[in-house]
């Protein structure tokens, strides 16, 4: 069974505010007015300072041998960034500690929530618990122990189990493309929350979404199987499928629409909802992209750059009735329609 994160403790509105201030201070080009506003918030109530210190304490506890996080004054953005950067440099030494400290006793903020929801979604840190991972806007290619080639999209992570009887890649988040090394006796399997995709001498894409897995076969064949059911299907090159908890949904071959275009920093859409484009941009934007339901439903066709999300949003606004507002130096972008 794959490693599962423990349930996250409920966080307070003060903790939400502390996270928002971290985003604001992390954005760079901080003005004296921003510093003063932060200090006023910190001093307004004891609960504000406690929430800020708990956030810093979570980082300090998780990355135990790093320089101590200041407790008496508010954490500054440089300290947080340096802490996370050093954690990445010492990832392998840190993984055992992290796995033994997923819930921070008595702090009210769980590391299980802090790492995936805040640091990963906002681009503050990669998935430090994973064997292989990428950060915001980063694509990376790896050679696996058997010689297979694995490419991770931005904000993606996997764990590996390779031995004489099994070659297993557990996709924790994001998406990957794998070119499987032929001539091996051990089966090659990509495992997700919904099931498995086994190579039958092939090159294929697997994407983990919140409640489903998408598999696209780029060459040869793939066998897919649901996690809790015996149901399985065989996919040929050019075919795609969605795996949910109990069902398969075959994609029309026209619906694959070059799913591997992200390898070249592109998203190609043909009469797709705007929400698909924004979802593809999220791992490339350091912050939050907020999309209204009205804007999400707009249909788009085009070739869009993933590597330059702000320029892509500007181009979309030139052809669609969009109202785009930015906050915290582009860290938070709100996308809505301008239809009356």
TrEMBL record:
Superkingdom field:
Bacteria
- Start and end residues of each FecR N-terminal domain: 17-55
Record-level Gene Ontology MF annotations: sigma factor antagonist activity
The record's annotation in InterPro entries points to: FecR, FecR_N, Ferrdict_sens_TM
Q: Which UniProt keywords apply?
A: Membrane, Transmembrane, Transmembrane helix
- Classification via Pfam families: DUF4880 (PF16220), FecR (PF04773)
Q: Where are the transmembrane segments?
A: 97-115
* Span of domain FecR protein: 131-221
What is the official name of this protein in its record? Iron dicitrate transport regulator FecR
Q: Which organism is it from?
A: Corticimicrobacter populi
